[in-house]
Amino acid sequence: MQESQQLRSSLEAEIRKQLTEESQELQSEINHNEAKIAALEEALLQERNVSENLQAKTQSMETRLADMERKFEDQARISQLQRRDKQEAFVELELSVAKCEASQMATITSTNKDDKLGMEVDAGQPQKWDRIIKDSPYIELEQKLKNKMTQFLQSRSSAMEEHVQTQLNQLASDFGTWMDKEREIRLSLDEQVKAAKQSANAAVQAVEVVSAKLVMNQTTSESNRESDASAIANQKVLIQGLGERVGAAEHSVTEVTKVVEAMRTDLITTKSKVAVLADYEARLQSLDERIRATEQFATPVASAIKTIRTDRTTTQSAVAIHGTCIQNLTGAKESPENETRSARDGLQKSIDALWLRTKNLNDWQQNFSTRGLFDAIVKHLNESFVSEHVFNFTKVLKRVQRLESQLGDGSSKKRKLTAQPSAITT
């Protein structure tokens, strides 16, 4: 009996200890899950803030892209107008140079023809000059130069416009692709957050079910302990009655027989109590099985917690992807600015080179003079021909001076001869 009481007390102590430990563990798991849910809600709030910030940055990027496109168009329009003005100025300059050279050639040719005709002024001289100017190779050269410059500038401007348009189209397509990727990432994040919420709710429900089962098991164990305590008290009363009966059996055999019968009856009662103890052990075994089932049920809760952690890691990686997308958008914004700067520098270099060529041509035109050549020809003529021709040359010189005075200032008038001047005939 003492061994059974000790066994029962030890079992009760172990059961109480296990129930206390299980309740503490479940309470800690509940607190941990609540903390995880709070962390997930905070992470969800952060993701929403990140999405809102990303949307704001996307809108600002769209605005800046529209401003950049407008600036590109304005700059292209201004550059085209500047190129057109410079082209017209350059063509006018070349035209004036060609006309000046043609007029000088016409003057020299007409002078030579006048020498051949006896230095007489013809009434049809203006028509001859027009015909000479028309037949001059400088007119054709001027037209070719004008056509080449027009074709070059048109091809250059069209190539630059096509390049800028291609870059803008590429930037627009890339921006649309980035927007689609950002939208897909946002949808995946929303789905992951919803899945995390569902898993957290399932974990909370599982913890609530486990807590209810533990409360039920505690109630059942308390009722079993109360019934066992009453059975033990009854056994103590029976043992005391047996002692009294044994004392009375010393005086009477009849009483001994009654005591033996009572002992048999008590033995039957004890067997029934032992059966009750066996039932109690069976209940303990069922309680152990319930505890194991509770542990097995707690395993999905742990897996759900692991899933929550995995979802959190995935969310963090998605946030990192958001950062990478923002950096890519910033790099894509800087690339058109660099290309615009390089195109502007190239255009400025071309304009500077064209201005330098124009300046050199203007300087050449201003500094060009045939005065030395004219003096050398006159000196050669004076040294080569006889004195009777001096009068004719003096007359020619006076006519040339008179023509120069009619055309402009004779002292500063520049003369230009052909590369192979015609021979002077006397």
Topology:
Elements lengths: L1 H115 L8 H11 L1 H113 L3 H115 L3 H14 L5 H18 L19
Helix pairs in contact: 1-2, 1-3, 1-4, 3-4
Q: What does this entry look like structurally?
A:
By secondary structure, the chain is an all-alpha fold. The model is unreliable at 118-125 and 417-426 (pLDDT under 50). The chain has helices spanning 2-116, 125-135, 137-249, 253-367, 371-384, 390-407. α1 packs antiparallel against α3 (137-249). The longest helix is centred in the first third of the chain and has 115 residues, at 2-116. The radius of gyration is 59 Å and the shape is rod-shaped. Residues 1-71 form a coiled coil. Keywords: Coiled coil.
Shape: rod-shaped
Q: Tally the helices: what do you get?
A: 6
Structural class, by secondary structure, is mainly alpha
**N- to C-terminal separation?**
168 Å
List its traits:
single chain; 426 residues; mainly alpha; 6 helices; 91% helix; disordered C terminus
Short description:
The chain is mainly alpha-helical and 426 residues long. The chain has six helices and no strands.
